[in-house]
Design a protein that fits this description.
Distance between the termini: 19 Å
CATH topology: Protein-Tyrosine Phosphatase, Chain A
Mean pLDDT: 95
CATH superfamily: Protein tyrosine phosphatase superfamily
Largest sheet: 5 strands, mixed
Order of helices and strands: HEEHEHEHEHHHHHHH
Number of strands: 5
Shape: globular
CATH class: Alpha Beta
Structural class: alpha/beta
Strand content: 5-15%
Radius of gyration: 17 Å
Low-confidence stretches: none
Length: about 260
């Protein structure tokens, strides 16, 4: 692409500054192959929205968010909580991508972080494809957007869903991988904040393998290459897993600027 990808993903509007949530990002401003770009303040990706303070939640609602899609497991929701829907009514949808986190099940050992992430994302796409399709179908429905989807760190489940949406809409793979990589800095912000304000969360991250918190763009590049090799495009992949042409067209109409 003939664009400055670093400036594109580093746009000052990209990260929404909040006190207790550190990976809340606007997916606007990304160019597509047909000359359009994703709209600002329409679709957001985020980490654990259960941590939102009252002021944080007011900022989120102030951006027009009407739908929250929670990709975490049932146990994560039960143990950590959820978006404060009572104080700030939104359409809340719990669509778990998988039933147990990496920390709750045995995972292979890898010497290389990228190899681990590639294994994890390949496994996720293989086993949870219908759930990603369900999430995309929901986001393509009428009166859903602006919306935010999130998991715990806003990295893996959220990262893959972001890649599928942006890829299906025609955003270049290099941009998708760079957007994914922004989570590295977000994780650093989260850990600094947690040490002071939520020590139990900081301790949980300290006790887990470092590869669990990594967000190396090279891993996303491999995954996108996998998809395009097998399905010609991300569009082809999401169609194969059950996302309809109508849903993709609806997402394009709502998320992209006019032709």
């Amino acid at each position: 692409m003939d664009v400055d990808i670093e400036s594109l993903v580093g746009d000052h509007r990209r990260v929404v500054p909040l006190f207790a949530v550190h990976n809340f990002r606007d997916l606007g401003g990304y160019p597509t192959q047909d000359g359009r770009e994703t709209r600002w303040q329409t679709l957001y990706r985020a980490d654990g929205l259960y941590r939102l303070t009252t002021a944080d939640a007011e900022i989120v609602i102030g951006r027009g968010v009407r739908t929250v899609v929670d990709l975490r497991t049932a146990s994560e929701v039960a143990n950590r909580g959820m978006f404060p829907v009572i104080e700030h009514p939104v359409a809340y949808h719990h669509l778990p991508i998988f039933d147990a986190t990496w920390g709750e099940q045995a995972t292979p050992e890898f010497d290389d972080t990228v190899e681990f992430l590639v294994w994890a994302y390949r496994t996720m796409l293989e086993k949870a494809a219908p759930r990603f399709a369900e999430a995309m179908t929901l986001l393509g429905q009428e009166s859903v957007l602006p919306a935010v989807f999130h998991c715990a760190a806003g990295k893996d489940r959220t990262g893959i869903l972001t890649a599928l949406i942006l890829g299906a809409l025609g955003v270049d793979e290099s941009v998708i991988a760079a957007d994914y990589g922004l989570t590295e800095k977000a994780m650093q912000r989260l850990l600094v904040w947690a040490r002071v304000h939520q020590p139990d969360l900081a301790q949980a991250y300290a006790n887990m393998p470092t590869r669990f918190a990594a967000a190396d763009p090279r891993a996303m590049q491999v995954i996108l290459a996998d998809i395009t090799t097998r399905h010609e495009s991300v569009y082809g992949y999401v169609r194969a897993i059950g996302v309809s042409d109508e849903t993709i067209a609806s997402l394009a109409e709502k998320v992209l600027t006019p032709r």
